[in-house]
Amino acid sequence: MKNKYIPTSICLYMNYFVHGMGAIILAQNMDYLANQLNTDSAGIAYVISGLGIGRLIVLFVMGALSDKFGRKPFVFLGGLFYIGFLLGILISPNLEVAFIFAVLGGIANSTLDAGTYPALMESFPKATGTASILTKAAIAGGQFVLPIVMTMIIASKAYYGWSFLFCVAILALNALAVLKMPFPNHKQPAAEEIADESIEKDTKPLPKLKQKANFWIEGICFIIIGYTSTATFYLVSIWLPKFSESVAMMSPSASAQTISYYAIGTLTSVILTSILVKSWIRPVYVVFVYPCLSAIMLFVLFLFPSPMLCMAGGFILGFTAAGGVLQLALTTMSEFYPEGKGKVLGIFFTSSSLATFSIPVITGIISKTSIANIILLDAFIAVLGSVLALVIIARYHKIFEIPNRKLS
Fold first, then answer.
1. 399 contacts: CB under 8 Å, gap ≥ 6
2. What residue stretches are annotated with the Major facilitator superfamily (MFS) profile domain (predicted)?
């Protein structure tokens, strides 16, 4: 029989489609918001940092509450919080008020995560990996659509707030739909409810630990990679349009489109990388290769800024920086520490949240003197991630017994 939670999952993915737009909407409207709030690009970057703070302060609490009270209330609340964030930004009279609403946006993100990821895993217990990674595809879809909306707004000289209201309308309708949708019982396994769902077959033999992992070597490396992998793609999503406009001399509408190319690259990577790591390549190698490619592209952008390179760079950086390095690093870290996956996830995403808070602050300061140097900073962050990944690869071969890969 058909899985009765498919309509529910569509609502869950729709929230993440809007989240994809919400993650870049402040950066896409940077000039308009700077005028509204009587500030500059650095001030808007400060507001964006509030998203990271909001996500960080409720990261652990929301997950525990979701386990206790169920998934639906947190999916619904997350949508309402997001609406509050979007409308609040539009009515903010100054930087301080906008920052408070940005914190609410970060809280919305963590609230959605707390309800959505467990709900998807419980709805599709035989395909949890696929169900979870599709959220990344939904985010990429939103990041592709918003720049197109912005281009239409710019071309028609319409009110920039329509981009916010577009998101609000989707979230409001989706929140009403969520209230009517069935959710699995979060206190019992749902596997027996889905007898006909296709089973994901793991074609790769798993490595076995020969010795205990050393937290002070690979553990610290993973924590820092949680920061660098997030910082690399987050910085691009905020500053690539501004770099394209002010350094590569693109028009405002054309520079906004670089994030559409970024989203296409992300979506392409999610599909291709998920296939590669399923049957061909171990995630630990992707965690090294992708940041290397990101660093090369960022150095090229810094040295030879041009409209064509900005478009190509958007796609390549979407593919290499935002296409799953963060998730694959977490997967690899869980291999090193199989007995404490919950604690590992908490530590890793705390580091990731610190990046979403600190990167806008740091780059906002740099933007006062040079937008180009922001891209250079990102290149060095990607290099650091690559070096740390090399350490992890060396440790991986030392402490694991790695069986031959079966290809399919």
1. 209, 210, 211, 212, 213, 336
2. 8-397
Architecture of domain 202-407 in this structure? Up-down Bundle (1.20)
Q: Which of 376, 203, 218, 211 is nearest to 287 (CA)?
A: 218
Same fold, 1-196 and 202-407: yes
User: Do the Cβ atoms of 80 and 91 come closer than 8 Å?
Assistant: no
Confidence of residue 106 (pLDDT cuts 50, 70, 90): very high
Superfamily of domain 1-196: MFS general substrate transporter like domains (1.20.1250.20)
**Predicted pLDDT of residue 341:** 55
CA distances from 186 to 59, 119, 162 (A): 19, 8, 37
Token digits of residue 220: 């610290």
Residue-level pLDDT at 340:
61
The domain limits of the chain are 1-196, 202-407
pTM: 0.82
User: Please, which residues bridge with residue 208 across strands?
Assistant: 401
* Contacts of residue 126, Cβ cutoff 8 Å, sequence gap at least 6: 191, 194, 197, 198, 199, 200
